C-alpha cells in the first residue's frame, strides 16, 4: 500500500491483488450492507438498507435546517426545511444500489469499500420534487447543471472537499427527483441523511446526496471531485472516463437453507425449495425476465407484481433439490434488452459490477 | 485456511496471522458496528447500534408469537407475546458490547468476526422482567439454570444448532433481566430480535438471545455449543476455559477532526478541541474515572451525569491541539478499581479485548 500522506498526495492508489488490506477492513466495518435474507421484504426494514458514507456522519441537532439555493437563479435564498415540507409531497419506493457494489469481487481491485454484493436496499422515500424548490428560486435559462452539496467533509486523494454531486437540468427537473425528509414513514436516520437528502431514482446511490446543505445552479459543468474524478467508469487506471449514472440491470438471490457461521457455506434439505430474490434496473426501465441457473442450466422465474417504477421486483422459482453440491445463480433482463453478464466486467474504480449472483449450496438427503 | 467440510468438521479453526481472509471480509460485510461519531448520542439511533448475528436473521411474519416455557417448571406452557406484554413493563438504557469486539486487533487472531472497536451501542430496551414469566410457569427449586433458545439455526465447527445460551437461576431472577419487545420506543427490528428477545444488562451481548422461542429450566448446567464451547476465555487454543460473562471496563473516543476516505486518517485544526466519548463497565459497576492520553501523558476527563446503572457514561476533556502528529487515547476505571490495560490481552477466541482506544491525528495550523 502507498504510505503517501493522505492529506496531500493526489496520486492514484495502486490496485490491490490478493488479500484484503487493513484499510479495506476498516471500511467494511464502517459501512453496512443488506443481509441477503432481508431481500424477502418488499420494503427494506430500517437499519438493513445499505449505507456507505464517505466521511463522518455529521451531527445535526434539530430541524432548524436551511438549504441555500444559489447560482443561476433569479432569487437566491436560504429555504427552511419547514418550508420545503409545505411543498407537494410524494412517496416513492426506490431501489438504491452503491455504484461500487461488487468491487470486492474484481481482481485486481481498486482500494475502496470492498463490497461483495450486498450494497442495495429498497426503501420508501417521502419528500417533494426538487423542481418546486428550483421554481421558487427562479432557475435561469442558462442553469445547465444543478449541484448538490452536503455538510459531510473530508479528504480523498489529497483533496479536501464536502461531498457534492450534480445533475443535468432536465434530470433535476423531473418529477421523480425528490428532496426527502422521511424514509419508511419516519424521519431520516442520521446515517441516511437527516434532516434532508436528495433521492435520484434509477441512479446509483452516489447521486442521492445526504445532509443536503446547498443547491447551486451552474452555467457550466460541475467539477467537484466526486463528480469529475471518483464516480467514472474507466477501462484502465487513468484512462478515458465515462460518468457513472443509472444502475445496471441486476438481481440477487436469497441463499436457501442454513449457514455455517464462519464460512457462510449453505446447507439445504433435499426436496422442493422455493428460490426467491429481487431484480432491478436503472432509469426506471422495467425488469422483463429473471432466470435461475442450477448447475449451469437456466430456467425462467416467475415475476411478482411491480412495486413501482423505481422499486426492485420480486421473483421466485421452484427447484427440486437433489443431494450433492449445486451452483445456483440468477440473471435479470430489462425492457431495454440488457442482461446481466456471466462474468464480472472489470472497472478501474470497481464500479458497475452487475455480473450474475452465484450461491453455492450443499444439499443433504432428508433425515 | 482449513478447507475442512464446515458441516462435518469439528476441528478448531487455525489462528490467522497477517492479512484478512475472505471469510473475515464476508463477516465484516454482514455484521455492522457503531460509527464512532455516533458515540455522541446518549441513545444510539436505530440502525447504528452494533449487530452481530451468527446465522441468518429469521423471518417472523407477525406477532402471533409463542414462547415455550419448559423443563423444571410446575406449569410448562406456551406463553403468547400478547400475554407477556401484559406483565409489568420496564425501560432500561443498556450498553451492549460484543464479546469479540477488538478481536481484529489481536495477533494471531481467531477466525471469526474481525471487529476493531465498533461493536457497541446503548439503546433503550422495553420489556418485562423475565422473572414474571418464570413465576407464572412455577420455576421449581431444582431449576439451577435457565436456557434461552432462539429460532436462528446453523452450523459452527460441524455442530448444527439453534443459537442458545443460559443464565444461572439467581441472575435470571434479577429484576434487570428483561424479555423485550421494543428498542428505542419502537417494535424490535428483525435484525435485533423481532418480536421478542432477552436483554441481560451488564453482560456481553452473547447473553441477550434474539428471536426467543424457548425457555427451559434445567436441573444441570446447560451444555449448548455457544455456552460450553464458543464464549469461553482461553489463554491458549484448547486450553482451560473460563466463561465469558460481564463486560470488562472500556471506553471509546470520538475521533476529532475530519477523515480521509480510504485510510480514515484524521486531520484536526490547531486550537482548542473538545475530546469526548463514552465509557462503560459490566455487571452494573459504575464508571468512576476516565483519563485522556495525549502523546503518552494522561489527564482526567470530566464525567457526564449517569444515564442509568447499565448505560454507558459520557465524558469530555479539553485539549489544546498544537500542529504536528499526536497520539490520543482514553482509559476508563470502574468502581471495582478495574482499569483498561494499555496493551491487548490475547485470548484464543478473541474475546474481552478492553485495551485503551487509540486514535492518531494530524494537527494543522489554522489557515
Short description, anyone?
The structure is a homodimer of 367-residue chains. Chain A is 8% helix and 37% strand. Chain A has 367 residues and is mainly beta.
Topology of helices and strands:
2 copies of one chain form a homodimer.
Chain A: H1 22-30, E1 66-71, E2 77-80, H2 81-84, E3 90-97, E4 120-129, H3 130-137, E5 145-156, E6 159-168, H4 169-172, E7 178-183, E8 186-187, E9 197-199, E10 212-218, H5 225-230, E11 232-234, E12 241-243, E13 250-253, E14 258-259, E15 266-269, E16 271-280, E17 287-294, E18 297-300, E19 302-303, E20 313-321, E21 324-334, E22 357-364
Parallel strand pairs in A: 1-10, 15-22
Antiparallel strand pairs in A: 1-2, 3-4, 4-7, 5-6, 5-10, 7-8, 7-9, 11-12, 13-16, 14-15, 16-20, 17-18, 17-21, 19-20, 21-22
How would you describe what is shown here?
- The structure is a homodimer of 367-residue chains.
- The first copy, chain A, has 367 residues and is mainly β.
- Chain A folds into 2 domains: 22-243, Oxidoreductase, molybdopterin-binding domain (Sulfite Oxidase, Chain A, domain 2, Alpha-Beta Complex); 250-364, Immunoglobulin-like (Sandwich).
- Helix content of chain A is 8%, strand content 37%.
- Chain A has helices spanning 22-30, 81-84, 130-137, 169-172, 225-230, and strands at 66-71, 77-80, 90-97, 120-129, 145-156, 159-168, 178-183, 186-187, 197-199, 212-218, 232-234, 241-243, 250-253, 258-259, 266-269, 271-280, 287-294, 297-300, 302-303, 313-321, 324-334, 357-364.
- In chain A, strands 14-15-22-21-17-18 form a 6-stranded mixed β-sheet, with no helix packed on it.
- In chain A, strand 5 (145-156) and strand 6 (159-168) form a beta hairpin.
- The N and C termini of chain A lie far apart (50 Å).
- The model of chain A has no long low-confidence stretch (mean pLDDT 97).
- Chains A and B meet through helix 1, strand 5 and strand 14 of A and helix 1, strand 5 and strand 14 of B.
Amino acid at each position: 500500500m502507498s504510505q503517501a500522506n493522505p492529506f496531500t498526495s493526489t496520486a492514484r492508489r495502486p490496485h490491490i491483488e490478493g488479500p484484503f488490506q487493513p484499510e479495506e477492513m476498516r471500511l467494511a466495518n464502517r459501512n453496512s450492507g443488506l443481509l441477503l435474507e432481508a431481500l424477502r421484504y418488499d420494503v427494506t426494514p430500517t437499519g438493513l438498507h445499505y449505507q456507505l458514507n464517505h466521511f463522518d456522519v455529521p451531527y445535526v441537532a434539530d430541524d432548524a435546517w436551511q438549504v441555500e439555493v444559489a447560482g443561476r437563479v433569479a432569487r437566491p435564498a436560504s429555504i427552511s426545511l419547514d418550508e420545503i415540507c409545505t411543498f407537494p409531497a410524494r412517496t416513492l419506493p426506490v431501489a438504491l444500489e452503491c455504484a461500487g457494489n461488487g468491487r470486492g469481487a474484481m481482481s485486481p481491485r481498486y482500494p475502496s469499500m470492498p463490497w461483495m454484493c450486498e450494497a442495495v436496499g429498497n426503501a420508501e422515500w417521502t419528500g417533494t420534487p426538487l423542481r418546486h424548490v428550483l421554481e421558487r428560486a427562479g432557475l435561469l435559462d442558462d442553469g445547465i447543471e444543478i449541484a448538490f452539496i452536503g455538510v459531510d467533509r473530508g479528504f480523498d486523494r489529497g483533496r479536501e472537499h464536502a461531498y457534492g454531486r450534480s445533475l443535468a437540468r432536465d434530470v433535476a427537473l423531473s418529477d421523480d427527483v425528490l428532496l426527502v425528509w422521511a424514509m419508511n414513514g419516519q424521519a431520516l436516520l442520521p446515517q441516511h441523511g437527516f434532516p434532508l437528502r436528495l433521492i435520484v431514482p434509477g441512479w446509483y446511490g452516489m447521486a442521492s446526496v445526504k445532509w443536503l446543505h446547498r443547491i447551486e445552479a451552474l452555467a457550466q459543468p460541475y467539477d467537484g471531485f466526486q463528480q469529475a474524478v471518483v464516480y467514472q467508469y474507466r477501462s484502465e487506471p487513468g484512462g478515458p472516463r465515462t460518468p457513472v449514472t443509472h444502475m445496471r440491470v441486476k438481481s440477487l438471490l436469497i441463499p436457501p437453507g442454513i449457514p455455517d457461521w464462519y464460512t457462510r457455506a449453505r446447507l439445504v434439505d433435499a426436496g422442493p425449495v422455493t428460490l426467491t430474490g429481487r431484480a432491478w434496473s436503472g432509469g426506471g426501465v422495467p425488469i422483463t425476465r429473471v432466470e435461475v441457473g442450477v448447475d449451469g442450466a437456466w430456467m425462467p422465474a416467475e415475476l411478482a407484481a411491480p412495486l413501482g417504477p423505481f422499486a426492485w421486483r420480486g421473483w421466485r422459482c421452484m427447484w427440486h433439490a437433489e443431494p450433492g453440491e449445486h451452483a445456483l445463480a440468477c440473471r435479470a433482463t430489462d425492457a431495454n434488452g440488457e442482461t446481466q453478464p456471466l462474468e464480472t466486467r472489470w472497472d478501474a474504480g470497481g464500479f458497475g459490477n452487475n455480473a450474475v449472483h452465484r450461491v453455492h449450496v450443499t444439499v443433504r438427503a432428508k433425515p
